[in-house]
Amino acid sequence: MELYNKSSSRWALPIILVCFFVVLLSNNGVLASHKVFIHLQDTSAVNIKTIGRTGYHFQPPKHWINDPNAPMYFNGYYHLFYQYNPKGSVWGNIVWAHSVSEDLINWINLEPAIYPSKPFDKYGTWSGSATILPGNKPIILYTGIVDANKTQVQNYAVPANLSDPYLREWIKPDNNPLIVPDISINKTQFRDPTTAWMGKDGHWRIIMGSLRKKRGLAIMYRSKDFMRWIKAKHPLHSTANTGNWECPDFFPVSLQGSNGLDKYDENSKYVLKNSMDLTRFEYYTVGTYDIKKDRYIPDNTSVDSWKGLRLDYGNFYASKSFYDPSKNRRITWGWANESDIMPDDDKEKGWAGIQLIPRKLWLDPSGKQLVQWPVEELETLRKQKVQLSNKKLNKGEMVEVQGITPAQADIEVTFSFSSLDKAEPFDPSWADLYAQDVCAIKGSTIQGGLGPFGLATLASQNLEEYTPVFFRIFKAQQNYKVLMCSDATRSTLKYNETMYKPSFAGYVDVDLADKKLSLRSLIDNSVVESFGAGGKTCITSRVYPTLAITNKAHLFAFNNGTESITIKTLDAWSMGNAKIE
C-alpha cells in the first residue's frame, strides 16, 4: 500500500457554508416519490448513461424505481418486489417489479408480479408487505388506487403456482379489496399495509399509515381468517404534529444478542418505524407492546417526534424489514432516490433510484436504539485488499489510500486519540438544532479540537470534489457529544439551482472510554453508505462527481483537528459488480 501525506495547506480549501437544511426540511430537499410529471411518464430511455450507475447496489437496467415492497425469504430464495415504472425514468405507471436471489446481492429479474388490471387497483398498485401463512403459503397485501381521486384500498395477491421456485406469477382474486376506508379515515392517506402478525387470541393484525389532521396514525385491523378485516377502535400508536405516516413497520427485537425475532409476545422489546411524508426521513422508537390492549408505548428514552431516532440520517426512505429464517436475523431494506432532483436529469440518465444494501438490524445492548450492519453476503464481492495500521495524522494531514478502486470500495477504519481534552465546547444555542445544521456550521474544513477526522470519499486528485464522512467530538455540560457527518456540499462541480448537496448528520451515542471511533463506508460511484460506531448511526449520501469518477476517483483519510489522530486499523477492498440479470 502506497501512502501520500497531504500538508495542511493542501487541506485548507476555501470555506463555503451551506446552511439550507431548515429551508428544505419540509421535503428533505427532494421531490416526493408520488410527484407526477405526466409529460415524462411514458418517455422510455434510449441511451443509458453509465456514469454514476452503481456496481453492487440493486438497480434495474433502466427507468424509475422506488419503495422496496414485501421482501421475503421463501423456499431458498429471497424475493425483492419494488415500485417500478416500466415506461420511463420518472414516477408513474407503477407496477410491482420482482427479482429473486439466493444471497441478497446477485439478482435475477422477473416479469412484474402485480400491476394495475382490476377495478380495485385500476389507478395504481402501491406499496405493501408479504406474510407467510400457516402451511408455508405466502400472501401479499398491497395498496390499490381505485379512482382518479386517489382513493386507497387494501388488496391481496397470492402465487399462481407454489411449486414454481421463483413464484413468477401472482393472482389477484376477485374478492378484493379486503379493506376499504371508512368515513373516519382520510381515504387518500391510507396505505402501505405491514406484514401481519398473529396475537395470542389467534387473530391476525396489520397496521397501515395514515393521517388525522396533523397527527400521524398507525391504524390497526384484525382478522380471524385473513379475508375479513375489522378496524380496531384505536390505532396501535399515533403522534401529534408528525404528518402522514408512510411505510410503517412494527416488529419485535431481542433483548439479548443480534438474532432476529418473528414471535410477537410480551417478553420482547418492539420497534415502530414510520416514513414521514413531510420530512422524507425514517423515524423509529423503541418501546413495549401491550398485547391485551393492542397498544404500542415508546420508552421514555425514545423521542417520539421529528427529533427522534432515524434508521438513517441521509437519503434513505420507504424501508421495509423482514425476518430471515435461514439465518435467524431481521433485515431491513431502504430506497435512495436521486439528488439531482429535476426529472429532466433522470430522463437524460435513463434511470432513477437505487435499493440500498440490505442491513441486518438488532437492538443495541443499551436497549435504547437499533444497530444496523450490511448483510454479510456483501463481503463476497470484496476483491483486492489494502491495509494500514498505527498511522498518525497530525493537524491538517491527509493520507491517500491507494491500491484499490476508490469509486467502488468497502472501507472499515478505526480511529483512536490519546485525550479528550481538546474537544470543543458544545454551543448551547445548538441544542435545538438538528445535527445537519451543526454539520453545516462545523464542516470538514473548519478546524476543530478533536476532529473533524474521517474519510474523504469520491475525491478528485486536487480536492475540487470530495464527499467527507467524518466525526467531530464536542464537550457538553454533562457528557461528550459525537457528531457524525456525510457532507455532500463539495461533492460535485456540477452546478444548477436544483442540485441537492446537503450536510447530512446525526449524533452517535457511544462510550468514548477507550478513545476510539470506528467507521465503515460503502462507496459505489454515486452513493456513499456509512456506518458509525459499529452501525449505531448510519448516513447515506447520493452524489454526482464530475472529476472523481471511475479510475479518477481518490480516497483519503484526514484529520483537521488540533488533537492528533491515529488510524489504528484501516482495511479497504475494491468491490466487484453484483450480477443482475
Automatic annotation (TrEMBL):
Occurrences of domain Glycosyl hydrolase family 32 C-terminal (ranges): 377-574
InterPro entries linked to this entry: ConA-like_dom_sf, Fructan_Metab_Enzymes, Glyco_hydro_32, Glyco_hydro_32_AS, Glyco_hydro_32_C, Glyco_hydro_32_N, Glyco_hydro_beta-prop_sf
GO molecular function: hydrolase activity, hydrolyzing O-glycosyl compounds
GO biological process terms held by the UniProt record: carbohydrate metabolic process
Residues in Glycosyl hydrolase family 32 N-terminal domain copies: 57-374
Keyword Hydrolase belongs to the record: yes
Keywords for this protein: Glycosidase, Hydrolase
CDD domains per record: GH32_Fruct1-like
Taxonomy, superkingdom: Eukaryota
Classification via SUPFAM superfamilies: Arabinanase/levansucrase/invertase (SSF75005), Concanavalin A-like lectins/glucanases (SSF49899)
Family named by the database record: Belongs to the glycosyl hydrolase 32 family.
SUBUNIT field: May be present in two forms, a 70 kDa monomer and a heterodimer of the 30 kDa and 38 kDa subunits. The ratio of the levels of the two forms within cells appears to be regulated developmentally.
Name of the protein in question: Beta-fructofuranosidase, insoluble isoenzyme 1-like
Organism of this sequence: Nicotiana sylvestris
